[in-house]
Each structure stands twice: as C-alpha cells, then as structure tokens.
Write a structure and sequence with these properties.
The structure holds 2 protein chains of 2 kinds.
Chain A: E1 3-5, H1 6-20, E2 24-28, H2 44-48, E3 53-55, H3 60-73, E4 76-80, H4 91-97, H5 101-104, E5 114-119, H6 134-138, E6 144-146, H7 151-163, E7 168-173, E8 181-183, E9 197-200, E10 205-209, H8 213-226, E11 231-235, E12 238-240, H9 244-254, E13 257-264, H10 269-281, E14 290-294, H11 304-307, H12 311-323
Parallel strand pairs in A: 2-3, 2-4, 5-7, 6-7, 10-11, 10-13, 13-14
Antiparallel strand pairs in A: 1-8, 6-12, 9-11
Helix pairs in contact in A: 1-7, 3-4, 8-12, 9-10
Chain B: H1 40-65, H2 79-87, E1 94-96, H3 104-107, H4 112-120, H5 153-166, E2 173-178, H6 185-197, E3 201-207, H7 222-225, E4 230-235, H8 239-254, E5 260-265, H9 271-281, H10 287-290, H11 292-309, H12 328-347
Parallel strand pairs in B: 1-2, 2-3, 3-5, 4-5
Classes of the chains: A alpha/beta, B alpha/beta.
Chain lengths: 324, 348
C-alpha cells in the first residue's frame, strides 16, 4: 500500500473523484496551472482541463458564491480557500447562502459544495496564515465541518464529503500536511462523516482532539504512558455534526476529560464539548474538564510556539486531571 | 423586422448624452421599428401580467399595513422591468430574483394561490413556510431561492451560468437586483468573475432613481465596462425596450459572447398604462380587457381566501431540510420540543 502525506492523499481523492464523477470541478486561486500553493491540486489541470479545474480571480466571496451557483445547477464544486484565514470575505456566502439553500427552499434546492481550506498554526505564518476558525462554522446550521488528522482519513473523508448531499467545510491541518504520512489504499474507499475514532484505548482520562492537535496529543500520550498513565484518545474527525455517542461512552468510562484545540479558548469548540459532557455525563465526572487551547490573543508570529498547545502543556494537564 | 440588440445600440457610448435611454414605446402607443415582434396573444398575456402584478402589490401592501403579512415590499413602477426580463427568456433559463421580483414566478406559471401561500407561509408553500414573504423558491420553474441580502445572488448566477457553459448547455442566468446592490462586494465579484469567465449571465439592474447616493459614476451601466461586461441602459417602464435589451443579452450569452449588464431606469411613467396604449394602438383593446382589473382582483380574493384556509406547516417540519438526513442533534431536539408540547397540552 502506498505511503502518502496529507497533500498527496487529498490530491489522490480529488483525482479519483473527478475521474469517477464528471460533475466534480475544482476552483480557486492558483489551483489550476500552478497546482495550488500547497500543491493539493497538482496535475489536475493537465489531466482534466480548464473547464473542470478553474483558476479564479482573487476574491473568496466570488469563489464561494460562484461555487454555490454551480452546485445549484448540478455540478459538485470543490472550491479551495487558500488559507482559512482568508475565508471571512466569503463568510456571508457560506453562512447565509450556502448553508441555508436546502432549508430556506424547503428542500427544493441543494448546494453540495465542499470547501477545502488549510488551517492552523505552526508554520511561521503569523496572524493571516495560522488561524483555526472552525468554531464560527460549527455554529452554522446547515453546514458540516470535517477536520482530518492524517492521510488515510483525509482521503476517505474527502470522498465522502464530495459524494454527500450537504455543504461541507473541509479543514486541512497544514502544519502536518507533509509531516503526517501513512498508508493510503489505492482506489476508492470512504469514511463516514459524523463518526469519531478512538485512536488509543485507555481507561484513565479521555483526550478529545482533532486535526494537527492529534499529533501533539499523541506525543504527550506517549510520554504519559511512559509515566504510567493510561489515557484514551479520540480524534473527533467531524466537528459538526459531532459523534456524541463516542465521546460520551468514553467519558462515562474514564470520568476525566482533557480537550485540546489550537483555536482560542473562549467560545472555542472545546466549550461545546464541555457543555455536552455537563448536560449528558455530569455524574460520570471525577475531575473538572480541562481545555488546553490557543490563548485568547490574536495569533502571534514570533511566539507561535508559546501560543500553540504543546505536548508539555497537554502532558501536565493529563497528570493533573488523572490525579485530581 | 430587425431586432435591436444591445450590441447595435451603444447606450454607454461616450458620444451619447450620459443619460440616453433605449426606448421603444412612444406616447401614442406605437413602437419603434426595432421593437420585438410580439404576437397578439403574447401582448395580451403580458398586459395581463403587468396589471396582475400591480393589483397584487397594492393589495399586499394594504395587507402588510394591516399586519396580516409580516413583510411586503411593493414592486410598483418596476413591473415592466420584472416582466420584460422574464418574458425575454426561455423557460429553461434560470432566474435569480431579489425579493422585489418574487412575483416573477407568476409569469412562469405559478398558480396565484401558491404565491400567496408563500406570502403567508402556510403548509402549501413550496418552501414550507421557512422564509418571510417574497422569499420563495420554485425549482420546477427554475427560479432560485431568494435571500434578503443585497447582491448575494449575483456571483451565484455567474456560477450557475458558468456551470451551464461547462456542461455544454445553452441555459442562461438572469439575475435581478436593485441599484443599491451595485455598491456591494458581491456586485463586484459577480461581474468580475462573469467578465473573466465570459459566463452566459444577464445582470438586470432595477434603477428606480429614488436613491442617488449609490455611485459617483454617471450611470450604473457604466460600471460594467470596467469588468468587460457589455452594458445597456433602457427605459425600465418600457416593457418592449426591456424585452429587447434582455433578449439581445441572452442571444449574446448563447453565442458565447459573455455577460451583459442591463440597467433598467424607471422614468416615472406608468408602465402598465404605456403598454395598455400599445394594445390600443395594435387594436387589441377589448371591453373584457377594460374589466380585467376587476377580474384580477376577484381572482386574488379567491387565492387569499384559499391560502388562509391552509394550516401552518406542522411543528416537526422545522427540523427537516437542515441536512439531507437530520443529525442526531436535530433528532434529539425535535423529540424534546414535541415532548414539551405534549406536556404543555396535557397540563392545559
């Protein structure tokens, strides 16, 4: 089985689906001849031509607005927003338009657009190339939010997203775009949207994480295990709609929870997880729920490694939570 | 007789006076030699629709004032632009209205009671009462769901038009908007993308002249030039001029020549009366047509009465159509709401 990184897995999924389904088109800034700033669409222009691999003007609202029109007409557009930090000019088109077409038309019109966008810090990108805006979109009825952490999941989830009937924000952890490598089956397979995965079975404390943070957590957990702890790690994979059952089952078992995300803490996705656990598993808790998150500052440039959750920060919270 | 296309006329030609408008209907009801040839039945049908829109608007404005409708904005004095635009299309072409053109669905054959059902948001509404009045969607008629936000439909129309082009279909998008929308970012990206992609889209701008604070340009049409979008300015109360301009634009679009911006300027003349005189001029005026306003009003009475008999959508439908399949969260919330309501009723 070939070993791919996340970029290659995304590229593989796009190529496979474009071959399989003539309705699939990709569009975005420099995604055509140039192959995208991260090369995720490399080679697609040569293979499928300018009518299915469309270079667009530099305007996110135009990219998403026109992708909506294409989807209404029956195409399966997969627009790329070059960095998640640039998505805000398209916010209205995503939140008020894309996510609402099915509902507001009583199910007559659907806009199954899959927006791919690299997100997150750790690449020396400063405020405008490092943000994690997932919470804004998880608050949006009608939109699904998917964040893979590794190549295998990236391919399987992207194929599911493109074949689904709903709009999806597909956020790719660019910090581990190339660093995360793994075996990826050739050919077709899908992973269900709305299902989380227990990536390490454990008994003592549940760690909830997604995207690039899964790798930070894995490093912390490796050291925690050496210290004699037994954490359970859940990669959420889909943030909206959340797989509540997998989360609650684990929390009911361990009674202790550490949540890790790199987005700012206040009103971050972790807040929703805390609320869910308090609503549905409060009496299972043995310790306060802890959030290890980005700070409530704008994303800093020079000090990004202090801002981002580190294995050390996660490890210390694992110990504290386990012995509470 | 030759039809005048926007290419042949150059209303944004700098040599023309800056407010020159393309006009076909004359004071006496006659039409210029370039006027589109409408057969007698089409003329009468168009007149009926113009008058129907006016009757509808006046009644709904009155109902809105009475509080019977949550929202209503009249399209009075823009009837010729709304209907002229739709008239010029094929039924397979797509329409992206703003809320002011919601009633364009009637032209495409929507029964009046269905339109009123959308306005009152009952269970018969094709959009299931999900949106406030004038925000309908009629997929069977290729009329796209309406947003309240000014201009969001422009890049969507551009995308749909491009999709038709890459799908090797000759469908065209017609997108309506008011002149206020020309100030938005979505106007910019909609026209810019359409110009770059040569998308088969017609941008129909309703300029009702009331607002003069939207541009420093000499006209809204002039804005098209910067995007490589051919532009025309027409008399928006002259239904034949609007038809000619939009038809010319769709022909250009189908020939692969790309987008057109049509600025339809309200001139303060009565569009319905102007077209009525045209019917007279063509000897199509009959005593029955003299009674038409009364007939239309009675039809509307019936439609309103019928729509009011229909219940609101059932409560549980609130949770449908968020996604193709409801999420577990929605299933739980629906169950919770229904449980609460059962408890309320048993306590009451």
């Amino acid at each position: 089985m070939p070993v791919l990184n996340i970029i290659q897995a995304v590229n593989d999924a796009l190529r496979l689906e474009m071959k399989r389904d003539p309705r699939v088109v990709v569009l975005g800034e420099d995604i055509g001849k140039f192959g995208g700033v991260f090369r995720a669409t490399s080679g697609l222009f040569e293979e499928f031509g300018p009518e299915r691999v469309m270079d667009t003007p530099l305007a996110e609202a135009g990219i998403i607005g026109s992708a909506i029109g294409m989807a209404l007409y029956g195409l399966r557009p997969v627009p790329e927003i070059q960095f998640a930090d640039f998505i805000y000019p398209a916010y209205d088109q995503i939140v008020n338009e894309l996510a609402k077409f099915r509902y507001r038309s009583g199910g007559q019109y659907t806009a199954p657009v899959v927006i791919r966008t690299p997100y997150g810090g750790g690449i020396r990108g400063g405020h405008y190339h490092s943000q994690s805006p997932e919470a804004y979109f998880c608050h949006t009825a009608g939109l699904k939010v998917v964040i893979p952490s590794n190549p295998y999941d990236a391919k399987g989830l992207l194929l599911s997203a493109i074949r689904g009937e709903d709009p999806v924000l597909f956020m790719e952890p660019k910090r581990v775009y190339r660093a995360s490598k793994g075996e990826v089956p050739e050919g077709d397979y899908t992973l269900p949207i709305g299902k989380a995965k227990v990536v390490r079975r454990g008994s003592q404390v549940t760690v909830l994480c997604y995207g690039a943070m899964v790798h930070v957590v894995n490093e912390a957990v490796e050291r925690a295990v050496a210290d004699g702890l037994d954490p359970e790690v859940i990669d959420l994979m889909t943030l909206s709609p959340l797989d509540e059952a997998t989360v609650l089952e684990s929390v009911e078992k361990t009674g202790r929870v550490v949540i890790v995300h790199e987005a700012p803490k206040t009103c971050g996705y972790g807040a929703e997880l805390v609320a869910l656990i308090c609503e549905k598993a409060l009496l299972s808790l043995e310790a306060p729920i802890v959030r290890v998150a980005g700070f409530d500052t704008p994303f800093p440039y020079t000090l990004e490694n202090e801002y981002l959750p580190t294995p050390e920060r996660v490890l210390s919270q694992l110990h504290e939570t386990a012995r509470f | 007789m030759r039809e005048t296309t926007p290419q042949q006329r150059q209303p944004v030609d700098p040599h023309l006076p800056k407010h020159a408008l393309y006009t076909l209907l004359h004071e006496d009801g006659s039409a210029g030699p370039d006027a589109p040839r409408l057969d007698d039945a089409a003329c009468v049908s168009l007149y009926r629709s113009l008058l129907q829109l006016r009757v509808l608007d006046r009644r709904m404005v009155a109902l809105g004032t009475d509080g019977a409708l949550g929202f209503y904005v009249s399209s009075e004095d823009t009837e010729a632009t709304i209907l002229g635009g739709a008239f010029a299309l094929r039924a397979t072409d797509w329409i992206f209205p703003s809320y002011r053109e919601a009633a364009v669905a009637l032209w495409r054959g929507l029964p009046l009671v269905d339109h009123v059902s959308q306005l009152v948001g009952n269970a018969r509404d094709a959009s299931k009462g999900r949106q406030q009045p004038m925000h309908g969607a009629w997929k069977a008629l290729n009329i796209v769901s309406i947003s309240s936000l000014a201009g969001t439909q422009l890049p969507q129309a551009t995308g749909m038009a491009l999709a038709a082009k890459v799908s090797k279909k000759d469908d065209v998008a017609l997108v309506y908007f008011g002149e206020g929308s020309t100030s938005t970012g979505d106007f910019h990206v909609g026209l810019n993308f359409a110009g770059v992609w040569k998308a088969p889209v017609v941008f129909l701008c309703r300029n009702d002249v009331a607002a003069r604070h939207e541009t420093a340009a000499s006209s809204y049409a002039e804005k098209g030039r910067g995007y490589g979008v051919t532009s025309v300015r027409v008399d928006g109360d002259d239904v034949l001029a609007v038809i000619a301009a939009v038809r010319g634009a769709t022909e250009r679009a189908r020939r692969g020549e790309g987008p057109t911006l049509v600025e339809a300027v309200s001139t303060g003349t009565d569009a319905v009366e102007r077209f009525r005189r045209h019917l007279e001029h063509r000897k199509l005026w009959t005593p029955e047509l003299g009674d038409l306003e009364h007939t239309l009003s009675t039809e509307l009475d019936t439609a309103i009465a019928e729509a009011r008999l229909v219940s609101p959508p059932p409560i549980e439908t609130m949770f449908d159509d968020v996604y193709a399949v409801p999420s577990q969260q929605l299933v739980d919330q629906r169950a919770q709401l229904l449980r609460t309501r059962r408890t309320d009723r048993s306590e009451a």
